Amino acid sequence: MFNDHTLAILGAGSIGQALLGGLIGDLLPPERIIATRRSEAGQAALRDAYPDIQVTDDNAAAVADATIVLIACKPYQRTALFDAIRPVLNNDALVISVLAGIHSDTLARELDSTNPIVRAMPNTPALVDAGATALAAGTTATQTHLDLATAMFEAVGTAEVVSEKQMDAVTGLSGSGPAYVFMFIEALTDAGVRQGLPRDVAARLSTQTVFGAAKLTRDSGEHPAILRDGVTTPGGTAIAAVSELEAHGLRTMIINAVETATRRSRELNESDE
Ligand SMILES: NC(=O)C1=CN([C@@H]2O[C@H](COP(=O)(O)OP(=O)(O)OC[C@H]3O[C@@H](n4cnc5c(N)ncnc54)[C@H](OP(=O)(O)O)[C@@H]3O)[C@@H](O)[C@H]2O)C=CC1
Ligand SMILES: O=C(O)[C@@H]1CCC=N1
User: What is the pTM for the complete model shown?
Assistant: First the structure.
C-alpha cells in the first residue's frame, strides 16, 4: 500500500512523532520519511530519535518529492507553513491534517489547491500505539486516499471513519479526552493519599485501575453500566461512592466538558487563536 510513497511530516512535535514512531520501518522505510521542525533543538531531538530519516526546517524542500504530506503544527502556526509549501506542493499529493477544528475547505482555500485532503483527529496515547483516531475525507479525497490515511493511523492504534461534520465532536471526546482521564487518574491518586496510602502505591493502583477498567470494557464488549453493577455489592463500598459521584453530577460534568471542547473546536475554524 505504501510502496511508492514518500511522507513529509510538517511540524513533527508530539503528534507528528507519535505517528512517525508507528510508521517507521513497518509501513515506510526511514529514507522515504522527511520531518520538519522550526527550532534547532527540535531538529536535533528528531535526529537523535530517528537517525535514518531526513530532518529539516525547510518545509518547501520537504514537500518537493512528497506524495503524502502530514500537517502536524498547531492550528495557529499554519500560516507561515502554508506560505512556504503553497508554491511547491505536488497537485496530487495526499494532504493529511491533524489540525483541530480546521475544515478541509478552509485548508484547500488557504493552500490554494485542489489536493485530496483527509482530516484526522488522533490522541496522545498514539505515542504508545494505543491511540484512537477518527478520520474524515474532504470533498476531493477518494476512498483510496481515506484508506491510505486510515492505515497510517492504524499503525498507532484504532481508527474510525466519520463525516467531517462529526470531527468537532471527536475532538471534544477522544482528541481532548486523554486530558480528562489524566485528571481522573491524578484525582484518584490524591484520594488514595488522602486515605493514607503512599503516593507511589496510590499512583500505580489508580493508573492500573483505569487501564484495567478500559481493557475490561473493550475486551468484554459489555455495557459499562453492567460492568459497574458487577462492582457494586448491595449495601457495599462501591455503591456508596457511586451515589456520591451521582450526587455531584459526574455524568453532567463530563457531558458539559465535551460540549465545551466541541464548541471550542468549532471556533478554531473561525479564528487564528
Ligand atoms: N496534542 C494533542 O493531544 C492533539 C493534537 N492534535 C493536533 O495536532 C497538532 C499538533 O499538536 P502537538 O503535536 O500537540 O503540538 P506540538 O507543539 O508538540 O507540535 C507542533 C510542532 O510544529 C512545529 N512547527 C510549528 N511551525 C512550524 C513550521 N513553520 N515549520 C516546521 N515546524 C513547525 C513545532 O516545532 P518547534 O517546536 O521546533 O517550533 C512543533 O514541534 C495540532 O494542530 C493539534 O490541534 C490533534 C489531536 C490531539
Ligand atoms: O487542545 C487541543 O487543541 C488539542 C486538540 C485535541 C487535543 N488537544
Answer: 0.96
